[in-house]
């Protein structure tokens, strides 16, 4: 239990985010790039990944694996963020300036995970 509180906050954020994929799947399906198949399955799979990786942050034996998994997941999620900039429907009502700010935020989140390696 010597881990910094920030690691547990990060874990809670990913677990909560993953749960939201199951509670509000339509919200996530709406922002899925059209070129990806099986949107519903991908939404649920990404939700499971967020939950599992978030829990993994709290288990010392798999913490490093979870950190690398989160960094990879965030890199893949960049596809969704770029797609959301491509049309008003994909933007889901989010202002364009916020969508633009989300791109560097992804790299900030990757760095936040990396510092706990």
From TrEMBL:
- One short Pfam family name for this protein? MauE
> Residues in domain Methylamine utilisation protein MauE?
8-89
Q: Does the keyword Phosphoprotein apply?
A: no
Q: Name one GO cellular component term.
A: membrane
State where the protein is found: Membrane
Q: What is the protein name for this chain?
A: Uncharacterized membrane protein
Top-level lineage group: Bacteria
Alphabetically sorted, this entry's keywords are: Membrane, Transmembrane, Transmembrane helix
Topology of the protein relative to the lipid bilayer: Multi-pass membrane protein
Show the coiled coil region(s).
none
Q: Which residues cross the membrane?
A: 6-23, 43-62, 68-85, 97-115
* Record GO biological process: methylamine metabolic process
InterPro entries per the record? Methylamine_util_MauE
Predominant subcellular localization, coarse grouping? membrane
């Amino acid at each position: 239990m010597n881990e910094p509180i920030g690691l547990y906050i990060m874990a809670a954020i990913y677990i909560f985010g993953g749960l939201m994929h199951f509670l509000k799947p339509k919200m996530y399906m709406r922002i899925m790039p059209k070129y990806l198949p099986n949107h519903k399955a991908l939404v649920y799979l990404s939700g499971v990944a967020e939950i599992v990786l978030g829990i993994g942050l709290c288990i010392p034996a798999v913490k490093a694996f979870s950190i690398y998994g989160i960094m990879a997941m965030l890199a893949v999620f960049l596809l969704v963020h770029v797609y959301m900039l491509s049309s008003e429907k994909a933007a889901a009502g989010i202002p364009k300036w916020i969508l633009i700010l989300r791109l560097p935020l992804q790299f900030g989140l990757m760095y936040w995970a990396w510092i706990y390696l």
